[in-house]
């Protein structure tokens, strides 16, 4: 028979054996657990522990991937400090900013398929100011909606600033429209918030992008001064003229420093004097910041405002007009304008409609290769 003192030593030895970390007598207990509950193991949790585990299981867990899958971090999360410049890697940007090859867009309306774009090709270099012109229904507005991320093409290839518009996901498309491209609608009411003043309208997209307050104020003042509306910073959009409202719309589109600016009929509701002011503002933005500007319009006056005009006909690129100055500058210089037909990658060529009508060309034509050019005749020479 074991004495009382010996019986206590035996029980203490058994408790130490159960709490030993070597696995022979039990599992390792947390610090202080053995002293509070000597005979209790982690294999049999207390009722309070079970309740705590149930409460933790009911709590919503944060997502594992907190960061977005695409797009650079906003300015709120950008690295700062002495070593911030060393951690940022810049890659050389391609020369071609916009590249479209064989672009097709098909709509279905009341069971009828409407082909808006029929294999359109377009190439725009970085820093260009380009105007796209065409009659109503030629496909120019459809092209602009695709390039700005508002619509998706049915087939073909479309790249804008390295973004593949055909395979773009929802998150990448949001980042593309917020930071890569800017858009200006025809009506000023579609571009601006009426109950905000001029400065607040320019500040709003920067706030949505997560920019700091100091950066927003500096950027807003710079854009308003560049576009000549700094004196109207405290006014509402309803108090501005048509030209001032469209220049404010341009400032809003440029708030997050986009690489490309798309304008859909920016002078459709303006007179000739106000239209010239808007095109002058676009030229200043293009020269000061190197922003690529694409303007879609049917206004014939745009021909004298840009250096390159692309004409679209029947959903394809028909011709291009290039303008350049003949002199070194001064008052005696004049502008030379030359029109080119566009040859796509498979060799298709759209002849000017005036040429086709003058020679009566229909269905088939005769083609002959000369030493340095190609000759085209109608199937039957005119009598």
Automatic annotation (TrEMBL):
Listed PROSITE patterns: ABC_TRANSPORTER_2
GO molecular function: ATP binding; ATP hydrolysis activity; transmembrane transporter activity
Domain of life, per lineage: Bacteria
Parts of the chain that traverse the membrane: none
GO cellular-component term (any): plasma membrane
Biased composition (Low complexity): 80-90
This protein's UniProt keywords: ATP-binding, Nucleotide-binding, Transport
Residues covered by region (Disordered): 1-96
Domain ABC transporter: 98-339
PANTHER family: ABC TRANSPORTER RELATED, IMPORT ATP-BINDING PROTEIN
Comp. bias regions, Basic residues: 26-45, 53-68
Keyword check for Nucleotide-binding: yes
CDD domains (alphabetical): ABC_MJ0796_LolCDE_FtsE (cd03255)
Species this protein is from: Nocardioides euryhalodurans
Pfam families assigned: ABC_tran
Listed name of the protein: ABC transporter ATP-binding protein
